[in-house]
Design a protein that fits this description.
The chain has about 260 residues and is α+β, with helices and mostly antiparallel strands. The chain folds into two domains: about 1-130; about 130-259, Histidine kinase-like ATPase, C-terminal domain (Heat Shock Protein 90), CATH 3.30.565.10. The chain has five helices and five strands. The protein has helices at about 5-85, 90-120, 135-150, 165-185, 220-235; strands at about 150-155, 190-195, 200-210, 235-240, 250-255. Strands 1-2-3-5-4 form a five-stranded mixed beta sheet, covered by helices on one side. Strand 2 and strand 3 (about 200-210) form a beta hairpin. The longest helix has about 80 residues, at about 5-85.
Length: about 260
């Protein structure tokens, strides 16, 4: 076993060690790259999940406001109307109706607090019943007229055609919230609800002849926040504020078809 053979053997060993080290380095690098990709994929999945959860909480907040708060507001209005307009009501009955109205208003306060928490958590239809649309506006206006004992009219311009269900639901909720605001901030005021159908858009106009919005947050509450969110998702526009001849005005424009 001569010096030349020993040299060749040493060279082979060194080459084998170098190849092994290179292979180990590549394996470690591949493992590191795979771990980084896995971590990135998990981060993307977590972000998408959180985004979906936030969107769901915002949707729940809108539905709580549009449905539950609307009916609680009706309870308060009906109790107050019955207490003030029923002749010869016994004192005990009036006291109970007053308590019903106070309880409903307290529930609305708690509901608004809950909505604030949900909206903050969201950074911004659970029911299986059919969602309302423009065909149900007559019933909505009739209910508003009955509960407020004030004039409430539905005025329609243009050729009435079925619209995208999402557009109709948005329009219905806008009118519903505008009527609720009118009852809350301008009780007894007359309200006109106008729909104007054109070839490519639906225009809404809800106006009351009350005293106009005081500095009570009417133009910045959760109701108008929900309106703006719905309108934005439908690709429309919304304006709310003082009416030119007095009172409060809500105007909205919606595309005839969902975007």
């Amino acid at each position: 076993f001569g010096p030349a053979a020993a040299g060749r053997l040493l060279g082979v060993l060194l080459f084998s060690l170098a190849a092994t080290a290179t292979g180990l380095g590549l394996a470690r690098r591949a493992t590191g790259d795979a771990a980084a990709r896995d971590a990135s994929s998990r981060a993307v999945a977590d972000t998408l999940l959180e985004h979906a959860a936030r969107g769901e909480r915002a949707r729940i907040a809108r539905e709580l406001h549009d449905v539950v708060a609307h009916h609680i507001s009706l309870i308060a209005v009906q109790a107050e109307t019955a207490r003030l307009t029923t002749p010869g009501m016994p004192r005990e009955g009036a006291t109970r109706l007053l308590a019903i109205g106070d309880t409903a208003r307290q529930a609305l306060t708690e509901m608004r607090r809950l909505l604030g928490v949900l909206r903050e958590d969201a950074g911004t239809e659970t029911t299986r019943r059919p969602q309302p649309g423009l065909e149900q506006l007559n019933d909505l206006v009739d209910d508003a007229r009955d509960t407020s004992a004030a004039s409430t009219r539905l005025i329609v311009h243009g050729h009435v055609v079925p619209l995208d269900p999402g557009i109709e639901l948005t329009a219905y909720r806008i009118v519903q919230e505008a009527l609720t605001n009118a009852r809350r901030h301008a009780p007894g005021a007359a309200v006109d609800v106008e729909l104007h159908y054109t070839g490519d858009a639906l225009y809404l106009r809800v106006r009351d002849n009350g005293p106009g919005p005081p500095d009570d947050g009417r133009t910045a509450g959760h109701g108008l926040v929900g309106m703006r969110e719905r309108i934005a998702m439908a690709g429309g526009t919304l304006w709310a504020g003082d009416a030119p001849a007095g009172g409060f005005l809500v105007e909205a424009a919606l595309p005839a078809a969902a975007g």
